[in-house]
Amino acid sequence: MFFRNLTMFRFSSNVSDDLNRLDEVLGEHRLRPCGPMEMGTKGFVPPVGRGEEAALTHVVNACTMVTVGSEDKLLPGVVVNDELHRRVQKIAEEEGRKVGGRERKRLKEDVLNELVPRAFIRSSRQRAYVDKKNGWLVLDTSSRKSAENTLTQMREALGSFPAVPLAPEEGPRVLMTDWLANGNLPAGLALGDEVELRDAASATGAIAKCRRQDLDGEEVKEHLRNGKQVFQLGLTFDERMSFVLGEDLIVRKLKFLDVVVDELGDSHPDAAAEADATFALLTLEVERLLGKLEEWFGLPRPAEA
Asked: Could you tell me the residue range of the domain that residue 92 belongs to?
């Protein structure tokens, strides 16, 4: 249940009351199987457990986890076009005529009607949780598109959910470049072994990516002297987690270190107790990190409307 990435949105305190309705409203938006002629469906699935009886929310303290599931049919365009071409060629050979635009369109519809019901289905899951106390929506993804899709599902279920993207008061590139160039890291934060540097003055400028490398080394310093800025930076927080922080403030490659994993233990009486303990530890650790990101970059909670 530990998240591997963190994409965050913020919401005001007066939204928290609406979030108390999640458990009752999600049932009407449960994921259903793809119909024969549908290319995909989306909906909520149980974050813990399976089956119709499993709850669609998992609550620990002030945090509520939800999971958006999707079923998408895999029907590559090349498959459709190849079959369409075969049918057009057959008409040309057997009837000695060309297929016009209107007939080609009808043939393509026939191809889709035959192939869509037989297409393979790919299932996916997107986990997220809301921290009602601190006003965070946290998603286990580094994809902005996937995060927005999940937020859309929550808005449809609730009728409205005014969560907004992060709007830092301090420029992440400038601040992270200062951390790397001058060693002015906040207390508890240490450099990792990964960085991506770019020439911020040009969209087509050079990009330098360093992995498994000493970030205090001369090679990295030379890039900084040449005017490159930090776009992604590997960091360790309080010796409890490591991650790569992007200039978009998305946390990638999140890994909880042994000291955190050891605190979880392995003496839970059942799967439900283990899920509770894991979610509680996850949200506690992430809450501490997000509190610091809020402090370092200026990410205040939105004011009440």
From this structure: 77-117
CB-count exposure of residue 85 (10 Å: 0-12, 13-18, 19+)? exposed
Interatomic CA distance for residues 131 and 259, integer angstroms = 24
Verify that 146 and 249 share a domain, yes or no. no
Is the same domain home to 132 and 113? Answer: no
Q: Which residues contact 109 (CB under 8 A, 6 or more apart)?
A: none
Q: Is residue 126 domain-shared with residue 159, that is, in the same domain?
A: yes
What is the biggest distance separating any 2 CA atoms in the chain, rounded to whole angstroms? Answer: 79
Same domain, 214 and 250: yes
Closest CA to 287 of 63, 64, 16: 63
Of the candidates 152, 207, 159, 135, the one whose C-alpha atom is nearest the C-alpha of residue 25 is 159
Pairing of strands 136-139, 164-165: unpaired
Question: Has this prediction a pTM greater than 0.85?
Answer: yes
Q: What is the pLDDT of residues 87-139, one digit of tens each?
A: 999 999 998 889 999 999 999 999 999 999 999 999 999 999 999 999 999 99
- Between CA 184 and CA 206 the distance in angstroms is 25
Specify the DSSP class assigned to residue 243.
E
**Cβ 43 vs Cβ 32: under 8 Å:** yes
d(CA 240, CA 258): 8
Residue pair 31/44 in contact by the 8 Å Cβ criterion = yes
C-alpha gyration radius of the chain: 25
Same domain, 156 and 64: yes
Token pair recorded at residue 250:
């998305």
Q: What is the pLDDT of residues 232-254, one digit of tens each?
A: 999 999 999 999 999 999 999 99
Under a CB-based contact definition with an 8 Å cutoff, are residues 65 and 47 in contact? yes
